[in-house]
Please model this.
Amino acid sequence: LIIRPGFQEMNFGYVFIISAAFLFALRQIISRVIADTDVPMTTAFYTAYVSVGIFSLFQPFVWQSISWNWDLTIFILYALSAGVAEFLVIRSLQIAHAVVVSPLQYTILLWVSVYGYIIWGVFPDTWTVFGASIIIFTGLYSLYRERKIKKISE
Model:
């Protein structure tokens, strides 16, 4: 619903969106699996390392020159905040099950919408909000179901 298949012409950007969602979920699973054997800093390093490798494949096709003053500042701030966020997500997956952490991460959809509006003046349309709502409520239902199953088993 978010990318509206069938309502508009498919383009290569949709492949990136679906790939990003898949890789995000895969990273969640892998982080949880290795949480008992690796420290969060190691996992965050490898996540960044793989991300740089993947992004480097596409960089020649989209490269634009940067202005070293403003753009470099933004890149450094982004790298620092993304590194801290990645570390905290991995640490949270060590402490709690993914079914608990994931619904909290759905707030990313809210923040993307807020920042998209503030920075670019773009607000999500009705279909995007509807699709995001389905994603969020599905995650919340999973959390509810897991808690209910846990109570029954106790």
About this structure: The chain has a mean pLDDT of 80. The longest helix spans residues 126-153.
